[in-house]
Amino acid sequence: MSGSGGDGATTPSTATIAYLLREGSTQLAAVADNPRLEARLLLAHALGCTQNDLIRDPQQAADAAAYRSLLDRRARHEPIAHIVGRREFWSLGFEVSAATLIPRPDTETLVEDALDAFSGRPPPARILDLGTGTGCLLLALLHEYPAAFGVGVDLEPGAAALAHRNAQQLGLTGRACFVAGDWTNSLSGRFGLIVSNPPYIADGDIDSLMPEVRRYEPRRALAAGRDGGDAYRAIIPHLRDSLLPDGVAVLELGAGQADMVSSIARQSGFGVSLRLDLAGIPRAIRLLAASR
Predict the structure, then answer these.
(1) HEC-encoded secondary structure of the chain
(2) Which fold has domain 14-76?
(3) Which CATH number fits domain 89-289: 3.90.1640.10, 3.40.50.2300, 3.20.20.70, 3.40.50.150?
(4) Which of 118, 138, 141, 286 has CB atoms 3.0–4.6 Å from 150's, for a disulfide?
(5) pLDDT at 135
(6) In this predicted model, what pLDDT tens digit does every residue of 32-89 receive, in sequence order?
């Protein structure tokens, strides 16, 4: 960035921070719920500074070329997390890529439910995350359970590699490993806690998803057959083989799927409880051995 006078463009490729934020907000109004915030995030990323730096000196001039390139990408509905390469989850920072789903606030409901499941009793020593993606679920839980060891499994090798990098960045590589595999098929041993955010969108609903999702996030991590239940039917009947006798499994639910997944779980010998997300939607299902 370099010094400048008035508010507005001083050359075709240079403008003040205040001007660029207004420009970005206008351009993103059609694609963003909070265009001002997204414009600020993109400008800070383009300039290699913090959002606070932008606020401190809004009349300072900046090279606009890189920023405008990022705005064009976001205007085409590319997720902002892909553009900046990171997303926060459970107050931790995670690298993201096109190989995985972007971590979402709703998924934090699983972390909350898992923590509640072990309230008043010893925490799990071993945690398994099926369909680990960025590793956000497993690494958030390892952050909360400092004595635990975790295994993350994902069918996509690129996702497993990304999760490993996130573990490195969070200082958790000594307590986590990530493998490419098909659910529990490649594993032996038992775990005190199993978590999963599996695919749960019905195939016929994919085209109706918002463009940020259907164009940019991996279909394999979204689509789950005619009714969205294929992954649950693949995972739940085999959980007993991977859970300790007093273990707990917590799975994410799609909207309207609580009854279907509860039925699958009960048929597999589990008792179930549901946890609502902040919108009041059943978002997590906790599975316990029915005899408990």
Answers:
(1) CECCCCCCCCECCEEEHHHHHHHHHHHHCCCCCCHHHHHHHHHHHHHCCCHHHHHHCCCCEEECHHHHHHHHHHHCCCCHHHHHCEEEECCEEEECCCCCCCCCHHHHHHHHHHHHHCCCCCCCCEEEEECCCCCHHHHHHHHHCCCCEEEEEECCHHHHHHHHHHHHHCCCHHHEEEEECCCCCCCCCCEEEEEECCCCECHHHHHHCCHHHHHHCCHHHCECCCCCCHHHHHHHHHHHHHEEEEEEEEEECCCCCHHHHHHHHHHCCEEEEEEECCCCCEEEEEEEECCC
(2) Helicase, Ruva Protein; domain 3 (1.10.8)
(3) 3.40.50.150
(4) 138
(5) 98
(6) 999 999 999 999 999 999 999 998 888 988 989 999 999 999 999 999 999 999 999 9
Taking 50 as the threshold, does the pLDDT of residue 210 lie above it? yes
